Amino acid sequence: MNPRRSQRSKRLGRRGKRLALVAAGIIASTAVTAVPGNAAGKAPADDPTPVPAPAQSPAPAPAETPAPSGSSPAPADPQLPAIGAYLDYGPLGVDRMTELSKWLDGTELRVGHTYLPGDRWSNIEGAPRFLESWAAWRKAKDDRMFVLNVPMLERNEDRVGDWQVRAMLRQGASGLFDEHFRVLAKRLVDLGVPDTVIVLGWEMNGTTYTHRCGPDPESWKTYWKRIVTTMRSVPGQKFKFDFTPNRGRDAIPWTDCYPGDDSVDIIGLDSYDQPSGVTFDQQVTEEYGLQHHVDFAKAHKKPISYPEWGLFRNGDNDEYMRRMLKWMAEHKPLYNTVTDYCPHGVWQCKDNPKSTKVYREALSGLPVNPTPKPTEPTTPVRPPLCSPLDLGDWVEYWLGGKLCLRFDWWERKERPRA
Fold first, then answer.
1. Most buried residue, 74, 170, 305, 336, by most Cβ within 10 Å?
2. In angstroms, rounded to a whole number, what is the distance separating the alpha carbons of residues 212 and 2?
3. How far apart are alpha carbons 385 and 366 in whole angstroms?
4. Model pTM?
């Protein structure tokens, strides 16, 4: 059901050779600073799921004093929603959570959500420094929740053919890839986030990802169980595994991919406002839709979640926003994280003013002590004293982040922050 990704790998290949030379010239002639992440923190507008690029730049120091890494999460008030938003895959996403909270009059974002890149195994293992800022944010307060989307196979967005997917799933089911997930689990435990929610192999009922279920559902389910067993074998872990398909049937009924209650802790759903012309009531009642999801989770005695949701094919649809918020208030998911970039979002996207108003009015000021309400959405945090350069994904991949042109290098007096 979800919109498909743009041809990212082709774009990288075309732009890479050209931009590498440009970047080299800039580095040689200009004072620059490496900045992790991208300037806007957005994935392509035709694709709801963020495309996290490998990030190896140093993470910023946490603004708050972390709780002891061995502490257990304190029980949260069940009346308060565990909400969050996807704002950027790297440290910038952590920074923007503070800004979004201010925009919501002090409502605390208890859920931090990011994605591991699925281009190669070293990144699926949680490459060093990628997760540090998220771990620091999680440990700063006991009632916070860290949600991490984890690909099941490398080359995850390379449009790998069904016969190759089938072969890779069977290799995974036989245990060939176990060590990669053992490394990831140990890394998360060592970072002090052993209770991470793992959204493993998300949207498996579609056609976008190499880790899709359709080419071989039985091998997919066996592979899922192996990954869960492997990660649970690491001492100190307290992971929760979230099985999250697309809403609707898509390429295969998502129930055909369900691996079993013993290896699933949460049953999630990615649910965007699409296809065009489909009402919210139809999203509820369609085959494998919102109601089926709730009923299926109840039958299996599992909590529900909405790791991805937001606007899409029907534009600035305030009715969808109002109904989706009401749906979640009624069915009380363990957590929800709106996808906040255009065309899906409400804070970083100015294309949806009616829906933004609904979202902000519904969630502002929770629970108490709201901060002064700004007249306009706060501009997302930018690196101080510099202007990010758009050199393209390929160049930024090899540089480990964006290049940032210092605009104060020639001045004696520091200029105010942008």
1. 305
2. 13
3. 33
4. 0.73
**Residues 284-313, mean pLDDT to the nearest whole number:** 98
Interatomic CA distance for residues 340 and 37, integer angstroms: 16
Instruction: Please give the distance of CA 353 from its chain centroid, rounded to a whole number.
Output: 23
DSSP 348: S
Q: Distance (Å, rounded) from C-alpha 124 to C-alpha 185?
A: 11
Per-residue model confidence as pLDDT tens digits over 151-164: 999 999 999 999 99
**146 has a pLDDT exceeding 60:** yes
48 DSSP assignment: S
Checking if the pLDDT of 267 tops 90, the result is: yes
User: Which of 222, 193, 202, 220 has the alpha carbon at shortest distance from 150?
Assistant: 202
64 to each of 191, 196, 227, 260, how far by Cα in Å?
A: 16, 19, 33, 39
pLDDT of the residue at 104: 97
3-state secondary structure of 97: helix
Give the C-alpha separation, 99 to 267, whole Å: 30
| Residue 202 CB-density burial (10 A; 0-12 exposed, 13-18 middle, 19+ buried) | buried
DSSP state, 213? Answer: S
Contact by Cβ (8 Å): 52, 8: no
CA–CA gap between residue 90 and residue 186 (Å, rounded): 20
Task: Please give the Cα distance from 368 to 100 (Å, whole number).
Answer: 16
| Tens-digit pLDDT profile for residues 16-41 | 433 333 333 433 333 333 333 333 33
Query: What's the DSSP call for residue 256?
Result: G
Find all residues with CB under 8 Å of 97, minimum gap 6, and list them. Answer: 84, 85, 87, 109, 112, 137
162: left (phi over 0), alpha (psi -120 to 50) or beta: alpha
- Whole-angstrom distance, CA of residue 331 vs CA of residue 244: 16
Neighbours of 162 (CB within 10 A): 12
DSSP string computed for 261-288: GGG-SEEE-BEES-STT--HHHHHHSTT
Residue 121 CB partners (closer than 8 Å, separation 6+): 154, 177, 180
Angle at 93 between CA 88 and CA 94, to 5 degrees: 165
Which pLDDT value is given to residue 367?
73
Looking at per-residue pLDDT, the higher value among 216 and 417 belongs to: 216
For residue 255, give the DSSP letter.
G
Which of 46-55, 165-174, 359-368 has the highest average model confidence (pLDDT)? Answer: 165-174
